[in-house]
Request: fold
Amino acid sequence: MSTAGQVIRCKAAVAWEAGKPLSIEDVDVAPPQKDEVRIKILFTSLCHTDVYYWECKIFVCTWWNLIRIVESVGEGVTDIKPGDHVLPIFTGECKECRHCLSEESNNMCDLLRINCDRGVMLADGKTRFSINGKPIYHFVGTSTFSQYTVVHVGQVAKINPNAPLDKVCPISCGICTGFGATVNVAKPRKGQTVAIFGLGAVGLAAAEGARICGASRIIAVDLNPRRFEEAKKFGITEFVNPKDYDKPVQEVQKNEICAYASSNFRVGVFVCLWVCQRLMMHSRLIQ
Reply:
């Protein structure tokens, strides 16, 4: 039976307060409006930095990864149809603004760049989630800890339906971030040396991007030596552990790393406390 155009009741994890355990609730998910799609969530995974959102301690540009199937589409949606397999894009593309039309800044869409303060949909300034008529706010445009969610069409990317759904979740977060930063922004040339700070998912993806670009030396800097051996599979050729030195890592960087590195990627966290404070002003948040 088709559910298009109808309200769907399903389970969702709701953050009622910062730092408090998520609560599994029955929520109503309204049909998609203009330029929106409603999606059934099949798999989702947690990025560690999402915990910082939940704790309301710091703000970082990341989101929950997921894989989903389109259930229905709203008015004006032509390039996505019911049944399509899609990944989220937490900072989407309207395909019309100056940034979307630029090869250098197309991740800075004027309409769909990350806005954790909004919590509502663009079409009408309302949420698509509710509990007994009480609005429940969206989270960075995705809200994937729900069996169904509604997102702007510019925040989904269609993928090959044969892709293994339980394995492709990270592509929408750390992998595209690190790989894209290397291949599309830094663009190291063949034979150059690249330094990468941090060997999490983003750092490993950056290393893979540097390898594909033809970098001859890819130097990794990380505090966890257990990551080093596995990182070789992604193109890392050398390792620096700051714990092995009796001087600050920036001095090691200056004297031993950056003397050789043409590009470097600092995969870390940038603190913006005020954004977090405003984020949790929208309590009743579906994660």
Notes: The mean pLDDT is 80.
